[in-house]
Amino acid sequence: MATVSETSSAAARPPVDVARAFKDAAFAALVMLGLSIPILSFRSEQNMNNQLVLAERWDAVAIACALVFVARLAGAWLWRERVGAARSKPLTMPAFMKPLAGPAGLALVVVYPMLMLAINGPQGSIKWIDNFGIQILIYVMLGWGLNIVVGLAGLLDLGYVAFYAVGAYSYAIIATKVIPATYPDLGVWAFWICLPISGLLAALWGIILGFPVLRLRGDYLAIVTLAFGEIIRLVLINWVEFSNGYAGISTIPRPSFFGIPFNASDKGFAAVFGLEFSPIYRTIFLFYVILILALMTAWVTLRLRRLPVGRAWEALREDEIACRSLGINTTTTKLTAFSIGAMFGGFAGCFFAARQGFISPESFVFLESAQILAIVVLGGMGSLFGVVVSSILLVGGIEILRELDFLKSIFGPGFDPTQYRMLLFGLAMVLMMLWKPRGLISSREPSVIHKESRSISGSLVKEGHG
Amino acid sequence: MEVFVQQLINGLTLGSIYGLIAIGYTMVFGIIGMVNFAHGDVFMVGGFVALLFFMVMTSWLGLGLVPALLIVLVLGMIITGLWNWTIERVAYRPLRGSFRLAPLISAIGMSILLSNLIQVVQGPRNKPVPPMFTDVLPLFEKNGYTVGIGYKQIVIMIVTAVMLAIFWYVVQKTSLGRAQRACEQDQKMAALLGINVDRTISLTFVMGAAMAAVAGVMYIMYYGVVNFSDGFVPGVKAFTAAVLGGIGSLPGAVIGGLLIGLIETMWSAYFSIDYKDVAAFSLLAITLVFLPTGLFGRPEVEKV
User: Fold this and answer.
1) Are B257 and B20 in contact (CB under 8 A)?
2) Where do the domains of chain A lie?
3) pLDDT, average across residues B212-225
4) Nearest CA among A293, A292, A283, A296 for reference residue A254
5) Does residue B246 fall inside a structural domain?
6) I need a labelling partner for A174 at 20 to 30 A (CA). Which of A225, A327, B204, B256 fits?
7) ipTM of the prediction
8) B218 is in which domain, residue-wise?
9) Does the pLDDT at position A92 exceed 60?
10) Has residue B284 been placed in a domain?
11) Does B49 touch chain A if contact means CB atoms closer than 8 Å?
């Protein structure tokens, strides 16, 4: 099988025009030379008197140009258009794996903390459960929440992080100011009391911000939501009495195991269950909390798609005018999408504040919104599984860069891979869009089934006009 | 009154810079209907290109301030144009005609890529430039408060006016400008009439970036400092300017820029400097909600 497909694809490729490939590569290298002057060839540094002085780096320019030349030349051989071959085939699983993939993946996630504990021990596994497990799950949840707005209803929201911030600040302020002042006995339950409140407040803000933008569509909507996200962040920075400004809110109470705090006291989790005290229990507990929150988001999304409101969302995404002609109230449809999406963002924000114990406006910058939107779009809009895949790739990929210590032995001790994190993140966004503009998982299970269930290509699904 | 006049001068200076950036947004949106999210970062790259060339010109070649600035302006426009040309060629052109969100995500990725690239190659610290044109021309004095216009403000306004005149000439009177306006109206028809649409779009990006480069030079001259993260906020404000003026309209972009600059300085002077960005962003939201076509935009007619 393999050999047949190989020969057929090789036969379908046109021969390489060597002279032209070299010419293209030389041109690309020349463009690179132009781009690197002066950005790469000179580096400005402050001297002792705080004046800028220039340092020359022509070796870096030469390396960059050579790399571009080689890459372009290699590209001439590797990225030939295959004649007759379909471009960007959707990733599909073998048929027998399909019903198994969901439960198997879920089972793997459920045993993941235990697995890490068994491999790395209680000390070593905190990093793996917290930085990888919890971090990825937070973005999965945010991605699924935003997916309701962008993927189902087709409303492009670039300010989703605002609702994340509303959730986080609701919890932080209620738990540090309101509860100690009114019912200090409830302090240990703070997280569980505030979780629904944060969600509701975020949903309320979803409606408040949703109302003015109902008339807008497409890119305009995206920009206004971006503006709202920035306004909320700037207010959090400047309204110091309310949010403590740049300094942020610290000593936010951590979640308890349904009333039993995770501390070293006699009434703490470890003492009650007769275990030796270790911070790992809280980390594992947090992992399961976010897992359940995320699964709840997915479950609600799946159920909503089968309810009239969910069908109205998808109809709105496909054709707004047809929707209106059929008597669907687009105002309530859009507002429900905004508020339900925002609610899950609020839940995630509440969890984030509880996990960090400290929040500041720095955590809610536009970059976060962009990252969540990128996860949804790269996953293949509307695909729940795609969000998981792209969260693992983007968030996990960034986290794994912290672990690449061996690079120091190659590039010298001054090399810090984390410095390149966001650079590689931006590059990954561009490259993944070029590779698969429709996202990684571009096949869909239609919500409404006529006769038999069939998955359809993502290119048949519209992205909505706003 | 005297404070008002002073703020008017400051606002118009700032607004000139926003207007120059806004042209890049409005032209690209006009021709391919895409919000070029990376444009603010292209402006920041333009600022860094200007900074580095300025240092080469003054500290290495020992040129005087005025010839150095002129050379920096020209070189900055060329190099920044090349940057935007490459960005369009690599990140946007392959996605043209594809899924609508794809170029937007690609542009957001490009924006993150550009600012972090500059951070990596030039360092995260603020880059101070020696002060230029520090003299102030006093205009009048009232109640012990001297209203003055700085020489650099005069330079910024003059350069902006000259650049806009050149730009207006290119768009209105040359064959390239005609091709651009044709592509804006109907790309398919323009292609049928023998216009190279790809080339026209590329040149639109180059022109937008050249204007952003001028804004970058003006920015480092005015503020005397540039940082890798300086692209985002001026970028969003310039976009606000473009929207306020009516996206797709060139005079609208300039007037929108001046208005944003005025609103920002007036807000800082009379209300609170902390909330000046909130004022700009709120204005963006209010304009889009109540006046989606802006001041000079054409209403969008939706066909079924």
Assistant:
1) yes
2) 12-78, 109-403+436-460
3) 91
4) A283
5) no
6) A225
7) 0.87
8) 2-229
9) no
10) no
11) yes
